[in-house]
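Re: [help] complex structure
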Amino acid sequence: VLRKSMGLTLTIRTVSNIPNLSNWARLKHCRHLQHSTSGARCQTACRSLHTSAGLCHSDEEGAERERGKDVVNVVYVDRSGRRIPVKGRVGDNVLYLAHKHGIELEGACEASLACSTCHVYVSDRHHDKLPEPDEREDDMLDMAPLLQENSRLGCQIILTPELEGMELTLPKITRNFYVDGHTPKPH
Amino acid sequence: MLMRAGFTDEDRVIVHSPESKHPLIGEYEKGARKRAPGLGVPWTRQNFHFIQTSRVFRLVVCSFRRYLLLTEATLCHNMSTCILRAPVSKGFSLQFATTFAKKTSCYGVQRLGSTAAPQPQVCIVGGGPAGFYTAQHLLRSHKGVQVDVFEKLPVPFGLVRFGVAPDHPEVKNVINTFTQTARQDRCGFYGNVTVGSDVTVEELKQAYHAVILSYGAEGSRSLGIPGEELSGVHSAKDFVGWYNGVPGNKDLKPDLSAETAVILGQGNVALDVARILLSPLELLKKTDITAGSLEAIADSRVRRVLIVGRRGPLQVACTIKELREMINLPGTQPALDPRDFQGLREAVQDVPRPRKRLTELLMKAALEKAAGKEAEREWSLRFLRSPTHILPSPDRSRAAGIRLAVTRLEGSGEHARAVLTGEVEEVECGLIVSSIGYQSLPIDPAVPFDLRQAIIPNRMGRVQQAPGLYCSGWVKRGPAGVIATTMNDSFDTARSVLEDMESGQLDTSTPRAGACALHTLLKQRGVTPVSFAGWEKIDAVETARGREVGKPREKLVDVRDMLKVASL
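Output below.
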């Protein structure tokens, strides 16, 4: 496989497989093809495919972020205790922001207040700044294991400037959860 | 000839196709000296060639520019590895092989015991939420694992499709998450395969490094009282299966001609059944409830539903969202007895929030008579009643009533016990739905099963005394909990599997065939697996038919119809 990169565009050329070649010979063959390709300037050496860390899909978003406008910095604390600082924007939904940054916050019902899989703990000093939960959110929170005073559903939290510095901690549902005399939930 | 050369029946060679993301394993040098096989030549890599045309691999040995065809195998769908067993072919196919050798390219061959990166093969039995969440976690955490999900029905998603009520479509959104998992390259779906009869767990254990049992609870707890077998008595599982399109329940034909229906049990499933029985038709028409059951419900004469529980209001197993729905159900009114709630206001002051809010809502519904709300249909919660007999009609052909023993509580809170007082009462009714719990069943003698608890004995998802076997979901913990609980549980089991792979407890160094090994076996047994693409065809047909009648989908309820569509 020969990779030709032109900026962010990736083109792949399949090199027909040549038997009886050692890896080194194959690499040389690739390089030869690379250089001999007419009209195309290869900017990268022939190497195996890899994916780079998550990029912004839209250049616009990236530019606005640069300007610092509407940025709300929040910190997700994942189940292993690792802190992940994230630059969100005013109006962002906490659940989908987590997904964009690869944080494992499940949203089974896709923000329709029909499950409790996006249950998070909100840092105390920000918890009061959130609007009161809808009755339906409270109903769903009642089903969430390890419910605490500062529990909220991530899919119902929309970022505002006053939530700057908010910490969203994912509940630690460990195996001990089942050992500690947990009573089965209704279904 | 082959045996003399030291190549035994048990030898297997592995080929990696160029389509896989793994590097070629084992190349051989051009120009190695070739001698005729059978003359004591060692069957080394130098003598082997592979010839591939599309999905067929042929292993040949070169000798004096002639090719001896040893064996061939077909690359299985979705598999980047296949196992060739040699020797298999007894005949030569020289001309054929020669032509191929000229026209196509050859790939390396690797004998067992290579040091290639392992691609662990994991099999999941059961394509419901537990199965898919376990698969999801495995695929996300391990970049090489191949996960195959086996499902008895041609259609996936288990109780998300067949258990969640038709008027709860948002709960079914999780199907989108499962679909993403199933569409991944390293995830295979094999519907219409019944583990335990079409293929045994032993056979799965040989083909895979790990087998995870997530087949849920296909049975229901029995009441154990006389009259249970009378017509007119159904388990909630069957009743729900009937309106949700479970193929096995399509001919249930519940009797909806009497005015009163009694539901035994006060959990969310009981409330679902009550709600479907009493919902206005205009609302049901727009859901994915099956056409057959909608027709029957349209002719239903059920006007009063009693939801009966052995214990009191503080022990109801239902949750607040479902209760609120019942209270607000158009065209119906709750008929709760305020006497059941005496003294409860103080009792709930210190209980955990969920129980407190639920009880407060119950009390409000019982004590406040909604103004001007005389509705045609009525539902009530009957507490402290335990069924003892189902009473037959005079001609003994069907159920016509139920005898309930009055109980009282011993102890308090979640662990209070119901004790008989000796009093009884009788209720006339034409339909009795028993909603006292689903129950798992053993499906294969190779899997340990605890008959008393009706689960697979396990520790953290590792099946006891059965290395290589794991379990997740209801078959692991018992049939209780919502999708979120099953999700956490499945992630737990996946973590156990990953830990075992890491520690070597689960030996993944020896490659296994995976689904490829079962391909021929299933064919021989006349089983045609339905792939995920096959399900997507069924999905498209159901959605299209639903659109015609203003429903999200019109479910196919016959397995034969499903198979026909999937194979188009």
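The two ends of chain A are 51 Å apart (CA to CA).
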